[in-house]
Write the structure tokens for this entry.
Amino acid sequence: MATPARSPTSARALAPTSPPTGTSSRPNRPRRCCGRSPHRVPALDATAERLPFDDDSFDAALASVTVHQWSDTAAGLRELRRVTRGPVVVLTFDGDALDLLQLAEYAPELIAAATRHWT
């Protein structure tokens, strides 16, 4: 069975309407996110608990391995929801359970170093 073609209207609806933006509350952190990528994103000094953006400023939000640094998790999650029109994705981990990750089998040195750092 063939899938229906997407109309130009629905394709436009899926296109991002706001540029990518990063934040960092660490003063020694580079002012650009995504390291070596040729498409690096500017990073602003901000904390999750007080994001410097208007309501519904972004199509989507991603918090990647950062929740453990927030002083108030509930406030940070409320802020993510406030500034985001669409989905909010939070990727985090349990520092006490790093050895249970599938990656532990392939990179035991990495897991050992991370365990020392996060626990």
Helices lie at 8-14, 73-83, 103-106, 108-118. Strands lie at 22-24, 32-33, 41-45, 61-64, 88-91.
